[in-house]
Amino acid sequence: MDTDVVISGAGPTGLLLGAELALAGVRVRILERQQARHGQSRALTLHPRSIEILELRGIADRFLAQGRTVPGWHFAGLSRRLDFSVLDTRHGYTLFLEQARTEQLLEERARELGAEISYGHEVVSLAQDDNGVDVAGIGPDGDFRLRAAYLVGCDGGRSKVRESAGIRFPGSDGTMSSMLGDFAVADQEAIAAAGRTPLLIAPLSGGLTRIVVTSPERMRVPATEPVTFEEFRATLVELTGTSFGIAEPRWLSRFGNATRLAENYRSGRVFVAGDAAHIHFPAAGQGLNTGLQDAMNLGWKLAAEITGWAPPGLLDTYHAERFPAGQLVTDNTRAQTLLLELTLVPGYQRPVAALRGLLDSLLEIPEVNARLAGLVSALSTSYPAPEGDPLIGARATGRMFGPEGADLVHSGTFAYFGDGAEQVAEGWKDRITVAGTRPENLSELLVRPDGHIAWVRRATDPPDAALREAAITDWAGAAVRR
Ligand SMILES: Cc1cc2nc3c(=O)[nH]c(=O)nc-3n(C[C@H](O)[C@H](O)[C@H](O)COP(=O)(O)OP(=O)(O)OC[C@H]3O[C@@H](n4cnc5c(N)ncnc54)[C@H](O)[C@@H]3O)c2cc1C
Fold first, then answer.
1. Whose CA is closest to 455, among 433, 434, 480, 476?
2. Which residues in the chain show pLDDT less than 70?
3. Residue limits of the FAD-binding domain (predicted)?
């Protein structure tokens, strides 16, 4: 083998996955088609669960230092914003951080841990057998071949890995598109005076201004068609009466609402993650965030398999857990996009305004806010558990963890809290960090490396060493016998 894992694509998903694998001591090579980072940012948001997983690895501060927080985010562009501050987390906000910076920080992290990143290397085909995957590509010195135990396609919506592995990508084609422009010059007074317009405007670093516009006249233009400066300017004037003084476009792009979800996130020794597994309209800013959760879920499982302690079936839980999460995102963005699309269809303005008003009033109900905020922030993501306590599969919250809880999994191990410390330390010392504290309101708690709950024992249930061993073995593999 040339390496344990090849990752195709050094976007946010591939970079976090590479870091997670390297953290576990796995040899990983990330191949990136581009010659260098282009510096453009599609995404601008990191939602609460993303901050939490970065905190689990002790690196959240790096990201927080470079962005600014806002109390929540929108859903379907409704006037009333989602309030994340009511959620059960230390990070009840959205971090406004440009994707280029997120990628830069993730790349630094991956390199620090020893992941090898090769720019200018495009993956073009793969062939897998029972023992590994042969990856073929084109690099700066011509064709190359690599053999690895596993290959992960983090190569975006048009994933070559997904296609070559024969993973189907069913869904719906786009029916509408929006235009995006980053401008070096914009009349800030006009922007401030604009108030509520059919636009999304955001200040970017370097004095740039991002404007996103969806126009009834241009919304049926296919997302693949390039945007011209004149088209953008004319659309602004048509919709708002002003061009906002835009000049010196740094990036113009069109994006649409094609929505697709990989039928299987795994095909033998090949996996897909991030946009390679799911595409949708960027409503409520969830794509990058979802990719980070995919990476966090897959990293430790793949590392466990390579290191040799994975219990049977562990790798299959990646699809079982992340596919439903992908379904939630593709469904909620479909719903949000429909509302946006209908707003723009002639004849629908009045009824859609009435519907928006109704939804805004519903968002005033705390439970409705909590439900949608939990969905968009990904804090309510709970992985399917066949039986047992309903907490199993949910994320471990800071309250359960105690103040130092998140620190325990910095090194990517499981964390165990409770009465069986001696048994756990003896049997799984290499995989489980044993806490000195007890979890709040529980007798025992086993937290997975990705921060989700593997097993709990309630205070009302009697201790049972055999049950504990069975539960731990299910996720962390067999105990080491000496
Ligand atoms: C306008 C817009 C706004 C958005 N805003 C948000 C937001 O606010 N919040 C949010 O969470 N999400 C947002 N998104 C979505 C977000 O940008 C994506 O979900 C995210 O970039 C996906 O990350 P990824 O690493 O999975 O894929 P990508 O970022 O697409 O990275 C894939 C990488 O693979 C490389 N690659 C492709 N093919 C190959 C190959 N054959 N060999 C080697 N390398 C290859 C590419 O060059 C690329 O670097 C937005 C999207 C758009 C269009």
1. 476
2. 195-197, 403, 482
3. 2-333
The tokens for 270 are 């090949």
Q: What is the pLDDT of residue 196?
A: 62
**Could you report the per-residue pLDDT of 167-182, keeping only the tens digit for each?**
999 999 999 999 999 9
Q: Is any ligand 1 atom within 6 A of the Cβ of residue 227?
A: no
Q: Residue 156: CB within 6 Å of ligand 1?
A: yes
Please report the atom of ligand 1 found closest to the CA of residue 161: 41
Q: What integer pLDDT is reported at residue 406 of this predicted model?
A: 75
SS3 254: strand
pLDDT at 189: 86
Which residue matches tokens 């576990």? 24
> What pLDDT does residue 351 have?
94
Fold of 3-171+260-377: FAD/NAD(P)-binding domain (3.50.50)
Q: For residue 391, what pLDDT is reported?
A: 94
CA dist 304 and 412 (Å) reads 11
Handedness of CA 452, 332, 78, 40 (dihedral sign): positive
From 299, 452, 273, 272, select the one nearest 378 (Cα to Cα): 452
Specify whether the CB–CB gap between 433 and 405 falls below 8 A: no
CB 6 within 8 A of CB 135: yes
Running DSSP on this structure, what letter comes out for residue 393? T
> How do the domains of the chain map onto residue ranges?
3-171+260-377, 177-255, 398-476
> Which CATH architecture fits 398-476?
3-Layer(aba) Sandwich (3.40)
Q: Does ligand 1 lie within 6 Å of residue 13's CB atom?
A: yes
Q: How far is the CA of 275 from the centre of ligand 1 (A)?
A: 6
Domain 177-255 has CATH 3.30.70.2450: yes
